[in-house]
What we know:
By secondary structure, the protein is mainly α. 89% of the residues lie in helices and 0% in strands. The two termini are 17 Å apart.
Amino acid sequence: RELAKFLAVFFVYSSGLMSIIAFVGVYAERTVGFTASELIFLFLVVQISSAGGAFAFGAIQDRLGARRTIQVSLLLWIATCIATYLTASKPAFWAIAVTAGLGIGSLQSASRALVGLFAPVGKSGEFFGLWGLAGKAAYAFGPPVFGLVSAATGSQRVAILCSGLFFVLGSAFVLIWAIFIGWGS
């Protein structure tokens, strides 16, 4: 039961994450004005900072627990979406990209750890399979929402704010369920 509830929350915030992952290149090129060579370097920077986020937030997770680490990561993502909406300069976008990479690594590793906590020893393969399925479903849902919002409003900035709403909802659900269900750390 706990896994099913978590996977519902995971689907919500992963929809935001997957939409940003899918559209970061398009956003950087069309909205911020990145060149093709800058995009290649951008993806490299995001990958490196994502690995750093997984390691750095692993230490935070050891202190706070997986659920609280997810909450911190979601707050980081909310701030990242707002900052992305507000900026148009390349230097600021580079800083945002590093922060987003930290958020990718931390959110995915903490989510994986929480699934591990919910999984009974003999059922971990099935539990992680369901987690993977929820992630794929989020990838099928989040990017089309981003695209539809962008097309309807004519603004990728508004679509970024919409992606931020997935993180806001995910954060609210994690907090509510932690209070009422008693997800400890």
